[in-house]
Amino acid sequence: MFHSYRRSAVSAAVLSLSCCATAWAQSQPATPDSRPAMREITVTGNPLGAPDPIAPVTSLSNDALLLRDAPSLGETLNGLPGVSSTYFGPNASRPTIRGQDGDRIRILQNGGVTADASALSYDHAVPVDSLVIERAEVLRGTSALQYGGSAVGGVVNLLDNRIPTEPIEGVGGRADVGYATGNREKSGGVLVEAGNGRIAVHADAFRRDSDDVSVPIDLPCDNPQRPGEARKICNSASQADGGAFGGTLFFDQGWIGASASTYRSDYGSVAEDDVSIRMRSDRYALEGEWRPGGFFSSLHMKASRTNYGHTEFEGSETGTVFSRDTNDFRLEARHQKLGNLEGLIGFSSESGDFSAEGEEAFVPTTRTRANAVFLQEDLATSWGRLSLGARTEDVKVRSGGSTDPDIDRFFVGERSFRPSSAALGALVNLSPQWRLTSNLAYTERAPKDYELFANGPHVATGAWETGDADLQKEKSAGVDLGTQWTSGPNNARINAYYTRFSNYIGLLSTGNTRGEEGELNPEGEEGLPEYAYSGVRARFVGIEANGTLRLLGNEGLARPEEPSTLDLEWRGDVVRATNTDLYLPLPRISPVRVGATLAYGTGPWAARFGFDYYAAQDRVPEGDRATDSYTLWNASLTYKMKVQRANLTWYARIDNITNELAYSATSILTTTAYPSVPLPGRSLKVGLRATF
């Protein structure tokens, strides 16, 4: 009853915000600066605001983000250079960057910590929705030291402006509605911002409901709500809603703001036909900046508290209950320029309490405390720029055992670590068109609680997972070399990277099986396969490339009074990951990918048509399933119009046009649940975005 009431309340909030915003907008003068757009500079991995980042960064906003909208963060970002997805069905998918996933990818919200359990298990979703995100930034590689050793693979920063960082005059916002045929998804979101130059407020709300996802083959299903065979992924339906309210007070020497947000989701876990997950996440954030003058030109502070939890249900019975309460604090002090040198020093503190209760809990109750100091310095030169970063941390991870007195299989005790990292980057301007970049980094990461203390059956992986309380720090050294060419509308970028781990913590098969109570079975006896977290040497090598080529300009298309263009957007990447102790491939690595899109625009119309080709992935460790090659075709059409003060964008997008049957090489389900969870089949999505 409460669940239905809350969903009705969110729907009412969406409608109320839309109506109030429209009425207020019509009563305000239509000034062009009523709602300033977010600054276009990329801030992730570039806290000093340099015009050209040294690290390889991709930013998505506006139509580019709208046309990628998906229920999960991983699928929204999948296909960007070097980025793939863990794909645990349509609802739980985390980004994979350069072959690395889990706690080697740092997911941030406005530069602060997002606290959840998505890195713990593939079936745990990231509690964010692109309907209320203004920009997503992906930093690839090992240069984001200010975010800790967990950023060794990369950083995803999600910017939502829930705490406005720039003054707002008047009122503005946006509203979205959409419908997709492949899963009968109905989605809607609204965002309103208002201010008088001194005070700015933000409010948003969203809701997303979807049915089971259509696929090209018949699949069996034992879910009581939809038994039998159908061309659907069994138990893949989902519902999600949430919202936020925030505000900022601006004063002569800075600003201070706060926000409160909530996220709720109820979705099926596709690894089992009758298991569902009900998730909640409440986040409270405080952020501010003070510009005192003197040696330190600005002090920037972020603080947040997140209360996260989810319950796994087996039918109607409660299974395992997870909870994580996290506090995060970050302070950055930027100093005045010393000649051509500018930079900052910072301090961060993160603490989290985690618990898992239930017979199938595979991780004990834990407490993690991490404090760090870091610095970032940039030196401008006549030929480009040099960048230096360093970070040292103090990390304590404690296991309190199980909350169930009948379960005594967990280690009880504490481990302490002092990881340190450093990076050096360079940008060289060869000419107005050509630029070279390089990044060299050494990174250390403290093992996570589950890597140290896990000991139990993990339903999502179909294995008995065992941690190692004696694990040492994960250590890696990496180099990234890139070149970029720009000439008018034409551009090309290529990056090559090499990362070597002297101690890579991986979940590796032991060759043993365990019984229901965790006892080792005799050789050859069936049971849950045992996988243990172990440190091995590893190597990641890869190349990413993408660019745009202008095929035709206005002189060759349509009418001269309506600017028209035809561009070819191309992309490709490859990564090769090896366990160099045994010279065997590491699991769940993306195959070679190439793609291209023709993008046509004339006046208010824009059309896109393209493909993404995934090569076969047969370089897999023993026990993993190889995947065949496949090609996914897609297309989209948008039309823009203005109605009074509102700008409308109508759009239609069709994915997997040929209804190709495909399985993801980066999904564990391709091995553990084959053939039950292929990639989605053909789907048409139509929608409308209104901005005012």
Detailed description of the structure:
- The chain has 692 residues and is mainly beta.
- The chain has five helices and 35 strands.
- It has helices at residues 2-27, 62-66, 73-77, 449-453, 669-672; strands at 57-61, 83-85, 95-97, 105-109, 112-113, 135-140, 154-159, 169-180, 185-196, 199-210, 214-219, 230-232, 238-251, 254-268, 275-290, 296-314, 317-338, 341-357, 365-380, 384-401, 413-417, 420-429, 434-445, 455-458, 463-466, 474-487, 490-514, 528-552, 564-579, 584-585, 593-602, 605-614, 630-643, 646-655, 683-691.
- It has a 22-stranded antiparallel β-barrel.
- β14 (254-268) and β15 form a beta hairpin.
Which helices and strands appear, and what pairs or packs with what?
Blueprint (H helix, E strand, L loop, with lengths): L1 H26 L29 E5 H5 L6 H5 L5 E3 L9 E3 L7 E5 L2 E2 L21 E6 L13 E6 L9 E12 L4 E12 L2 E12 L3 E6 L10 E3 L5 E14 L2 E15 L6 E16 L5 E19 L2 E22 L2 E17 L7 E16 L3 E18 L11 E5 L2 E10 L4 E12 L3 H5 L1 E4 L4 E4 L7 E14 L2 E25 L13 E25 L11 E16 L4 E2 L7 E10 L2 E10 L15 E14 L2 E10 L13 H4 L10 E9 L1
Parallel strand pairs: 4-7, 25-28
Antiparallel strand pairs: 1-6, 2-3, 4-5, 6-7, 8-9, 8-35, 9-10, 10-13, 11-12, 13-14, 14-15, 15-16, 16-17, 17-18, 18-19, 19-20, 20-21, 20-22, 22-23, 23-26, 24-25, 26-27, 27-28, 28-29, 29-30, 29-31, 31-32, 32-33, 33-34, 34-35
